[in-house]
Amino acid sequence: MTQETQPVTAEQVRAAFPECVGIADEFRDVFGPGVTLNYASENGRSIGRQTPPSPETTLTLSQMVIEVPEEEPEKQGRRNGR
Does residue 82 have a pLDDT over 60? Predict the structure, then answer.
């Protein structure tokens, strides 16, 4: 038997998956409006269709280059009036 699904509004998705949608919003801010959320799973709920990872588009952590900018050293203040 096939289970029928009802259309879900963007507001319902935002309410049910706030963390997932928040991350998608951050990606959209960086990469543009073409970023879409195809599958989400949060707090025991899921939406969309989970697809197996593709070797052509999947990176492992060891393949990533993460650069952290050096922080400026803190300026030392005067001690005891010296």
Answer: no
Residue 39: beta bridge partners? Answer: 48
Domain for residue 20, yes or no? yes
In a domain, 76, yes or no: no
The total number of structural domains that make up the chain: 1
pLDDT value of residue 80:
58
Tokens linked to 64 = 């990533």
Q: What is the pLDDT at residue 74? A: 67
Angle at CA 56, nearest 5°, toward 26 and 44?
Answer: 50
Answering whether pTM is above 0.70, one says no
d(CA 34, CA 9): 18
What is the domain range of residue 35? 7-48
- Longest CA–CA separation in the chain, Å: 83
Residue 80 lies in a domain: no
| DSSP three-state, residue 7 | coil
